Amino acid sequence: MISYSKIRVQIDLNAIRHNYRLLCRAGTQVIPVIKSDAYGHGLCQVAQSLAGEGADTFAVGYVHEGVQLRESGCQGRIISLLGPVDAGDYGALREADIIPFIGHAATLETLAATGDSPIDIALKFDTGMSRLGFREEQLPDLVEFLRSHPHIRPVMLSSHLAAADDPRSNALTDSQYETFSRILSGLREAGFSPESNLANSAAILGHEKCLCDYQRGGLALYGANPFCGTAWEHLGRDLQPAMDVTAPVLSVHPLEKGQGISYGHTFVADRDMLVAVVGVGYADCYSRGLSNEGWMNFKGCRVPIVGRVCMQMTCVDISGLEAQDLTVRVGDAIHLLGGPGAGRISPEDLAEWWGSITYEVLCLLGMNQRSFIES
């Protein structure tokens, strides 16, 4: 957590609960994906809030995240999507009762060598992502290994969809589903009974075929629309963004016509202007890519960024606010994300100006100091 910034990040847990309920209506049993500190929204706080909504299984990234979650008092099932990576992770799985995703024979063999007490695992298969996971043709060898190591219990089968958020890639999503279904049938025919989960946020909302025993709700849980900018954007219209981010105004001063501002004078005033210097920059995980591109929200009105984003300062043009009968003063808070009125900045807005994706925007801004709203 960044301790030196003046950014304030407010997390609305009510919105996250709303989004969870929405995903449950579309996709029955939903596993909240709270890896990477719940995409910047607070690992333990989000888990505790959603446990109150009936969530019984939570997905983290690395094993040590699962340990942290367990130590916070989480009583539900915890699955580690990345599984054990180093020696300490293997012991932690049993100690903290964490279900690891296993997608490589060497990892499975190492796990078997760590002890013969029963341990539940999730089998991860690569059905088209070409990243992590066993391949379909490895299934016979995998079955043989599991039969010879009965203390390793495959309680879950999972795979990762590569392009479920792109309606133009439906053929790929369908192909992955078909491969996953064959693998699931093969395991069941071999005498195993794993729960299945394939659908991510986009598949929960838009690919009913992919719904299994459980679904994994990630991005949509935090109110970002996985179908933004596509023909299926309407499927995420009821999601509520949960993160609101502000920074303080440090200075307000005129900028004369012909005068440049910030490093390199990449912006030169074409008229007499009034600018505000805001206490946020790339050291606070506010991208330099927003230079001369992004906007902020002051009391419902958007104001454009002028000049380069600096380490801890960014300038905005506030000349137009006078016509709105708004005055910016030193110490006022200005919204980088969220905010009131028509000027509200969505995660999708900020990601577009940033030249990135909503995942990165949320994860990075969420590294600043946070407070939580929960009724």
Brief summary:
The chain has 375 residues and is an alpha/beta fold. The chain is 29% helix and 24% strand. It has two domains: 13-229, Alanine racemase (TIM Barrel, Alpha-Beta Barrel); 243-345, Beta Barrel (Lyase, Ornithine Decarboxylase, Chain A, domain 1), CATH 2.40.37.
The shape, in one word, is elongated
CATH topology of the largest domain: TIM Barrel
Number of helices: 11
* Helix content range: 25-40%
**CATH architecture of the largest domain, please?**
Alpha-Beta Barrel
Average pLDDT rating: 97
Q: Measured on Cα atoms, how large is the radius of gyration?
A: 24 Å
Q: Work out the count of structural domains.
A: 2
Low-confidence sequence ranges = none
**Largest sheet: number of strands, sense, barrel closure:** 6 strands, mixed
Determine the strand fraction and express it as a percent band: 15-25%
> What structural class should be given to the helix and strand makeup?
alpha/beta
* Number of DSSP E strands: 18
Query: H/E element string?
Result: EHEHHEHEHEHEHEHEHEEEEEEEEEHHE
Q: What's the CATH class of the largest domain, please? A: Alpha Beta
Question: What does this 3D model show about the protein?
Answer:
With 375 residues, this protein is an alpha/beta fold. The chain folds into two domains: 13-229, TIM Barrel; 243-345, Lyase, Ornithine Decarboxylase, Chain A, domain 1 (Beta Barrel). Helices cover 29% and strands 24% of the residues. The protein has eleven helices and 18 strands. It has helices at 13-27, 35-40, 43-51, 63-71, 87-95, 105-113, 139-148, 170-189, 201-206, 347-354, 358-365, and strands at residues 8-12, 30-32, 57-62, 77-83, 98-102, 119-124, 152-158, 195-197, 215-217, 243-255, 260-261, 267-268, 273-278, 295-298, 301-304, 314-317, 333-337, 370-373. The strands form five sheets. Strands 1, 10, 13, 16, 17 and 18 form a six-stranded mixed sheet that branches. Strands 3-4-5-6-7-8 form a six-stranded parallel sheet. Helix 7 links the parallel strand 6 and strand 7. Helix 1 (13-27) crosses helix 3. The chain is elongated, with a radius of gyration of 24 Å.
